């Protein structure tokens, strides 16, 4: 397995053992893993997020062009709502 770990916002290959302890270890840096990692980190916990894909852009193979309105409270808790809009995300009135 080709695991990548993100520490302090930077991805690094796990070619060698990491001599560091963590409060939380999360396997899989998809939406769920990244969300959990950030929420734990916002609580002040030291988090290791391990992903089998080495390329941090691997997730972009998925569409993720549309965010359900039900995700908005979580995006606010993550502190990402404003960043998404600053990056060009648009609100709409579509009700699915
Ligand atoms: C083509 C496509 C388009 C989509 N478009 C949208 C959209 O526009 N809007 C939307 O809201 N949703 C969209 N979805 C759905 C959305 O992508 C999923 O609901 C979401 O990705 C699920 O997140 P997750 O974290 O649960 O799982 P995943 O995204 O599957 O993340 C799991 C992660 O864990 C990693 N992993 C698994 N096993 C291991 C292991 N043993 N060791 C290390 N890492 C591991 C995987 O590599 C992966 O990165 C789309 C899905 C697809 C397939």
From TrEMBL:
Identify the residues that the record assigns to the FAD-binding domain, covering every copy. Answer: 22-89
Chain segments annotated as transmembrane = none
The record's section on InterPro entries has: FAD-bd (IPR002938), FAD/NAD-bd_sf (IPR036188)
Single Gene Ontology MF annotation: FAD binding
Domain of life assignment:
Bacteria
Q: What is this protein called?
A: FAD-binding domain-containing protein
